[in-house]
Amino acid sequence: MNLRNKLFTAFVILIIVPLCILGVVTFIVSSHSIEEKYSRQTEYSLKSISYSIGTVLGQMDNVTDNGIATSVFHMALSAKDPTKQDLNEEQLSLNNSQRNFRSLLYNHPAISYAFLYNLNGAVVSVFTKENFTTMPFEDFKKQPLYQEVVDLNGVPKWIAPHEYPELTGTEPVFTQIRLIKELSYFKNIGILVVQIKNWDIESIFRNLSPTQSMQSTDFFLVNDDGLIVYDPNHDLEGKQISSVMKKTVNFGSGYQSFKTDFNDEKSIVSIYHMKDYSWNLVAVTSWASLSKETLVFAQWFIGITLLCLVAAITFNMVFMRRITGSIGLIVRFMRKVEGGDFNVRVDDRGKDELHILAKGFNELVDQINSLFKQIKTEQKQKTQAELRVLQAQIKPHFLFNTLESINVLAIQNEGEKVSEMVHRLGNILRISIQDKEEIPLDQEIEHLQSYLEIQKFRFDDLFDYELDIPPELRRRSVLKLTLQPLVENCIQHGFEGIHYKGHIHVSCWTDRGRFILQVQDNGIGMSPDQLLKFEYMKIDKEEESDHELPGLHVNEERRGLGLRSVADRIRIHYGEYYGLYICSSQLTGTIIQCVIPDAEWRERDDS
């Protein structure tokens, strides 16, 4: 990731992300606070509505209590022919208490309809009602409601609209059902059914709405079975609340409030169970109406965040682009310098810190280039000096021994052999004194062969040799005097004290961009301890040769007298990943590999 992206990412992570987290947390806390505040307000409102409904129903309880106390229902039920008793008839002889009660019923505007069940099965009407047929008493006795009324023993039982339409009809009225007793003996004599209109109930829901911020609240009266028995808007009356609300609720358990979908809209639903009644007041408020302020805050927050992002992007493009672009350019040039290109320069226009940085980079590259050229010159001089030292090491003893051998041949009148020895010695001297550092492999092989022929004359029957050099590789360039020191090491050390004929095998091949020269002998070899006496060179393990002999002990670079010079010259000339590699084992022999780069392979790869 480049510097520009890092700075932009840091801005997003350290500023934008915490800002978003803060906004989300604030939104959640605000939403939770609004929900709790609404829940408390709604609980107070539902309790107030419950109290008001209870007051309305309690007033009707007092009216029917007065009727029972004045025995008006008792006298109507105890007539000889109750079916002919009609409290609406002007001809009915009523005592003063009965007339007062009749007047009270008529003067109560909420009463819609009233009648009495005689326990003998007769129905006594207090008021008549059009298009309504009273359920026969025998059918009523079969209803679970009958036993519930009897078990209440005179306590009023209130029925909401749509709970028992077969008994109360389909009009949205509340019905009181209670057992009538004879006051002298407390004997059950009948059942009173009184229906009241919902005017007062509607007035309660209309006048006791919650605060103005909750004007979108809808109220319902739901029984414990989940039936919506009263809806001020008359939209959902008679329906199960589970058909419009996703969450399943257990009614009849005090107050509860939660968030759920109601009529496919996210809403806050609050439920309060009415004391002494099997009904529940339900308040439903749209969450959108409650969270208007929170949504406004969220919109402002999103707008501010987007503005910050736009500012960050603008800053990144306008200001950071120049800074990071200049730094990135310097980094690219540094990589070119790492690759060996010391001619790169950065444009150092300007007067700020970037100008100072670019100028410093250019000066540093100039210094590195100057030092590199100086080191390269010194290394070249060192290599040439070591080559001259190596040549000086070879000439004295080798020339002396060779001339001594030629003298012996001359004494023995071996003219042809003298001529051949002189010819071989001339080849060696001609190649050794050349000023060229690299020569074709063909000339290096000619030099080696002349050296081997001279040594074979000196050490007759000590060894033989084989040169396995492919013709197509003879034009490869190698450092001169590379193979001769390796072969000399085999003769002087590998064949020392052997009782069999030695053999030297010289070969070469190419492998993955490397040119490998190998000298192998069947001499006495070296022990692991002898190998450990030599120093090692760091190499890439992937560059190890695939031609090592199994079971041999490996010393990756042996630095002897001649070998050290050859290894150092190869490393200085070609790089640290090239040099000499030795495999050796006692009584098995030694393999010396000279690894240098394959120039032709590199040319093919570059093309």
From TrEMBL:
<dbReference type="InterPro" id="IPR036890">
    <property type="entry name" value="HATPase_C_sf"/>
</dbReference>
<dbReference type="InterPro" id="IPR033479">
    <property type="entry name" value="dCache_1"/>
</dbReference>
<feature type="domain" description="HAMP">
    <location>
        <begin position="321"/>
        <end position="373"/>
    </location>
</feature>
<keyword id="KW-0808">Transferase</keyword>
<dbReference type="InterPro" id="IPR010559">
    <property type="entry name" value="Sig_transdc_His_kin_internal"/>
</dbReference>
<protein>
    <submittedName>
        <fullName>Sensor histidine kinase</fullName>
    </submittedName>
</protein>
<keyword id="KW-0472">Membrane</keyword>
<dbReference type="Pfam" id="PF02743">
    <property type="entry name" value="dCache_1"/>
</dbReference>
<keyword id="KW-0418">Kinase</keyword>
<dbReference type="Pfam" id="PF06580">
    <property type="entry name" value="His_kinase"/>
</dbReference>
<dbReference type="InterPro" id="IPR003660">
    <property type="entry name" value="HAMP_dom"/>
</dbReference>
<dbReference type="InterPro" id="IPR003594">
    <property type="entry name" value="HATPase_dom"/>
</dbReference>
<dbReference type="GO" id="GO:0000155">
    <property type="term" value="F:phosphorelay sensor kinase activity"/>
</dbReference>
<feature type="transmembrane region" description="Helical">
    <location>
        <begin position="297"/>
        <end position="319"/>
    </location>
</feature>
<dbReference type="InterPro" id="IPR050640">
    <property type="entry name" value="Bact_2-comp_sensor_kinase"/>
</dbReference>
<keyword id="KW-0597">Phosphoprotein</keyword>
<keyword id="KW-0812">Transmembrane</keyword>
<dbReference type="Pfam" id="PF00672">
    <property type="entry name" value="HAMP"/>
</dbReference>
<dbReference type="GO" id="GO:0005886">
    <property type="term" value="C:plasma membrane"/>
</dbReference>
<dbReference type="Pfam" id="PF02518">
    <property type="entry name" value="HATPase_c"/>
</dbReference>
<feature type="transmembrane region" description="Helical">
    <location>
        <begin position="7"/>
        <end position="29"/>
    </location>
</feature>
<keyword id="KW-1133">Transmembrane helix</keyword>
<keyword id="KW-1003">Cell membrane</keyword>
